C-alpha cells in the first residue's frame, strides 16, 4: 500500500511538473490530496534577508494551513459533486481558490528562494537576462518596478514576474490574497513570485514592507526562473 | 436636535446630510486644522500642512496586557496608524479639492460609491483604527446588558449565537480586513459584517458598533498565525460593551428600533 502510494506520487509529480518533492499524494476513493512540500534548504539558510523564525512559521504553519484546508475543501467538493449539490459546489469555490491558490503560490515561492551559497541573488544570465533587458531595460529596472508595485499593493497579495507564453513577453503583475498569477491572464506563467502578505515579513521588518522587498532580492533564485522561462520560450 | 452644537464643517458643506455625519462619532470630532510647522530657515524641513492627527487610544499602551501587548500597540498604533495619517496628509497636500471634511465625511466621499479614490485607503484606515481602539478597554469582554443584550438576542437568537457568528466571520475572512457588528439602517437590525482591506460600513450608511482588525499586523507579534486565539481574546477580554452600549444609544436617534416594553405593574 505504501509502495503503491510512493509510485503514484512520483509519477503524478513528474506528470504535473511539481518536482521531486511533489506535494501530491493519493488517498482512498481516488481523490488526490496534497501535502506540504519540503524546503530545499534549512529554515535559517536565507538569513539575514529572511529570518529563520519567519521561514519556519511561514512553511510549517501558514503553508501547512493552506494545504490542510485545501484538502478539506476538495473533499467537501467531491461530496457535493457526487450528490449533484450545485449550490454547495459553487459555495466552495472561494475556499478552493483561496487555499488552493495559497498552496500553489507558496510551492512556487519556496523554489524562488535560495541561500546565497546556492546561487541566491545571482543575476540571471542567458535568455532570461536578455529578455529582461529587452522588456524592462535592465534587471535593476525590473527590481525597482516590482518593488514599487509590491509596496503599493493594498492589503494582502503577491507581486509576480511572469511570462506570457502566447505573446512571449515578460510581465509584472500583482494579485490579491492568494489568487494565482493565472487569474490575471490565462497564458501567464509565473517565473518569480514575492509574497507581500504581512506574515511573510512582519516579525523581521514590521510595517516597513519596502525594506523586505529590497532585501529579498539577495536570495532570489534566478536559476529556477531561467529554467521555467527557457521551458516556455525555448 | 437644537441643543447640539454644530460642527463648523457641517455648515461649510450644507449639501451633505450633516446630522448623521456630525453626530455619528461625537467622540472624534476633529477640526481640520491647517498648521504650518515653522521652517526655522532650514531648507531641509519639509513643509507639511497637517490636516488630520493621530488620536491616542483611550488607555495607556500597556493597558491591554496580556491580551494585546504594549509592543504590539506601539507598532500597530505608533507605526501603522501613524503611517496612514501621515500618508493621508501628504496626499491631501496635492490639491485642495478634499479640504474641509471631517474624517467621516472624507471616508464616504473618497469611497466614491465603490470606485475609491486613492485617498480612501489612508482615510478609511485612520477611521477604522480610531474606532477599533475605542471598541476595546482593559478588563473588557463579558456580556452586554439590558437593551443591548435584548437587541442582540432579538437579532441573533442568543448572545452565544452572536459570539459564534462573529468569531466564525473573523476566521473565514480571507486576506486582510475587518469584522464588524453593525446596525443596518434600512433593515433596522444588527448584523455581523466582514469587509476587505480598508472598507467600513459607514460607506453604506450603516452604523458600526464593534470593529475587529484582522489584518495580520493586528495580531502577528502576539499570536503569530493563530488568528483564532486572538479573536477569542478580543471577545472574552477586550471588547468594551460599555462603548457599544453608548454607540447603540446614539444610533437609536437615527434608527427606530421600536418601543421598549414597559412592564405593567
Automatic annotation (TrEMBL), chain A:
Q: Where is this protein localized, as stated in its record?
A: Mitochondrion matrix
Q: What class of enzyme is it?
A: oxidoreductase
Positions binding Mn(2+) in this chain are 58, 106, 195, 199
Say if the entry is tagged with keyword Transcription. no
One of the entry's Gene Ontology molecular-function terms is: metal ion binding
Q: What is its main location?
A: mitochondrion
Q: Which GO terms describe its cellular component?
A: mitochondrial matrix
Q: Does the keyword Mitochondrion apply?
A: yes
The record places domain Manganese/iron superoxide dismutase C-terminal at 124-227
Residue ranges of domain Manganese/iron superoxide dismutase N-terminal in the record: 33-114
* Entry EC no(s): 1.15.1.1
> Keywords assigned by UniProt?
Manganese, Metal-binding, Mitochondrion, Oxidoreductase
The organism's superkingdom is given as Eukaryota
Which cofactors must be present for this protein to function?
Mn(2+)
Note one Pfam family from the annotation: Sod_Fe_C
| Reactions this protein catalyses | 2 superoxide + 2 H(+) = H2O2 + O2
The record, for PROSITE patterns, names: SOD_MN
Q: How does it assemble?
A: Homotetramer.
As for family, the record states: Belongs to the iron/manganese superoxide dismutase family.
Kindly give the PANTHER family that the UniProt entry links to this protein. Answer: SUPEROXIDE DISMUTASE 2 (PTHR11404), SUPEROXIDE DISMUTASE [MN], MITOCHONDRIAL (PTHR11404:SF6)
User: What role is this protein assigned?
Assistant: Destroys superoxide anion radicals which are normally produced within the cells and which are toxic to biological systems.
Kindly provide the name given to this protein in its UniProt entry: Superoxide dismutase
Record the organism: Eucalyptus globulus (Tasmanian blue gum)
UniProtKB/TrEMBL annotation, chain B:
Residue intervals of the Manganese/iron superoxide dismutase C-terminal domain: 148-247
Which Pfam families does the UniProt record give?
Sod_Fe_C, Sod_Fe_N
> Keyword Oxidoreductase: yes or no?
yes
**Any idea of its EC number?**
1.15.1.1
Which enzyme class, named as a word? oxidoreductase
Q: Where is the Manganese/iron superoxide dismutase N-terminal domain?
A: 52-136
Does the keyword Plastid feature in the UniProt annotation? yes
Source superkingdom? Eukaryota
What GO molecular functions are on record for this protein? metal ion binding; superoxide dismutase activity
Per UniProt, the keywords (alphabetical) are: Chloroplast, Metal-binding, Oxidoreductase, Plastid
Query: Any idea where this protein resides?
Result: Plastid, Chloroplast
Kindly list the cofactors needed.
Fe cation
Q: Name one GO cellular component term.
A: chloroplast
The principal localisation class reads plastid
Family designation: Belongs to the iron/manganese superoxide dismutase family.
Q: What is this protein called?
A: superoxide dismutase
Amino acid at each position: 500500500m505504501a509502495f503503491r502510494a510512493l509510485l503514484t506520487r512520483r509519477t503524478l509529480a513528474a506528470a504535473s511538473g511539481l518536482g521531486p518533492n511533489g506535494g501530491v499524494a493519493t488517498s482512498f476513493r481516488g481523490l488526490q490530496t496534497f501535502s506540504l512540500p519540503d524546503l530545499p534548504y534549512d529554515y535559517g539558510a536565507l538569513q539575514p534577508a529572511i529570518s529563520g523564525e519567519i521561514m519556519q512559521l511561514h512553511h510549517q504553519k501558514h503553508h501547512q494551513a493552506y494545504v490542510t484546508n485545501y484538502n478539506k475543501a476538495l473533499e467537501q467538493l467531491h461530496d457535493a459533486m457526487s450528490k449533484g449539490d450545485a449550490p454547495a459546489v459553487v459555495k466552495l469555490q472561494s475556499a478552493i481558490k483561496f487555499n488552493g491558490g495559497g498552496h500553489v503560490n507558496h510551492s512556487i515561492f519556496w523554489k524562488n528562494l535560495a541561500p546565497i551559497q546556492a546561487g541566491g541573488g545571482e543575476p540571471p544570465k542567458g535568455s532570461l537576462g536578455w529578455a529582461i533587458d529587452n522588456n524592462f531595460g535592465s534587471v535593476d529596472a525590473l527590481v525597482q518596478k516590482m518593488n514599487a508595485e509590491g509596496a503599493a499593493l493594498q492589503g494582502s497579495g503577491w507581486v509576480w514576474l511572469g511570462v506570457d507564453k502566447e505573446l512571449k513577453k515578460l510581465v509584472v503583475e500583482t494579485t490579491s490574497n492568494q489568487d494565482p498569477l493565472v487569474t490575471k491572464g490565462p497564458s501567464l506563467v509565473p517565473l518569480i513570485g514575492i509574497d507581500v502578505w504581512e506574515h511573510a515579513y512582519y516579525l523581521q521588518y514590521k510595517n516597513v514592507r519596502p525594506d523586505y522587498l529590497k532585501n529579498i532580492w539577495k536570495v532570489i533564485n534566478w536559476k529556477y526562473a531561467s529554467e521555467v522561462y527557457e521551458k516556455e520560450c525555448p | 436636535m437644537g441643543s447640539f452644537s454644530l460642527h463648523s464643517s457641517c455648515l461649510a458643506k450644507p449639501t451633505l446630510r450633516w446630522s448623521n455625519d456630525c453626530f455619528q462619532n461625537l467622540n472624534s470630532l476633529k477640526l481640520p486644522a491647517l498648521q504650518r510647522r515653522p521652517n526655522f530657515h532650514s531648507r531641509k524641513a519639509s513643509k507639511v500642512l497637517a490636516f488630520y492627527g493621530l488620536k491616542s487610544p483611550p488607555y495607556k499602551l500597556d493597558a491591554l496586557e496580556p491580551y494585546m501587548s504594549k509592543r504590539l500597540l506601539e507598532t500597530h498604533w505608533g507605526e501603522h496608524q501613524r503611517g496612514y495619517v501621515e500618508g493621508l496628509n501628504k496626499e491631501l497636500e496635492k490639491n485642495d479639492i478634499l479640504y474641509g471634511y471631517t474624517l467621516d465625511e472624507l471616508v464616504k466621499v473618497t469611497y466614491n460609491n465603490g470606485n475609491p479614490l486613492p485617498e480612501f485607503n489612508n482615510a478609511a484606515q485612520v477611521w477604522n483604527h480610531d474606532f477599533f481602539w475605542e471598541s476595546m478597554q482593559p478588563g473588557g469582554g463579558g456580556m452586554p446588558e439590558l437593551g443591548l443584550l435584548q437587541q442582540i438576542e432579538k437579532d441573533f437568537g442568543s448572545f452565544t449565537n452572536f459570539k459564534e457568528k462573529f468569531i466564525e466571520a473573523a476566521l473565514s475572512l480571507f486576506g486582510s480586513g475587518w469584522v464588524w457588528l453593525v446596525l443596518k439602517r434600512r433593515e433596522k437590525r444588527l448584523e455581523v459584517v466582514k469587509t476587505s482591506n480598508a472598507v467600513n460600513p459607514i460607506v453604506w450608511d450603516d452604523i458600526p458598533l464593534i470593529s475587529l482588525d484582522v489584518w495580520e499586523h493586528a495580531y502577528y507579534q502576539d499570536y503569530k498565525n493563530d488568528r483564532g486565539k486572538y479573536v477569542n481574546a478580543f471577545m472574552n477580554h477586550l471588547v468594551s460593551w460599555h462603548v457599544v452600549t453608548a454607540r447603540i444609544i446614539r444610533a437609536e436617534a437615527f434608527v427606530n428600533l421600536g418601543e421598549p416594553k414597559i412592564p405593567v405593574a
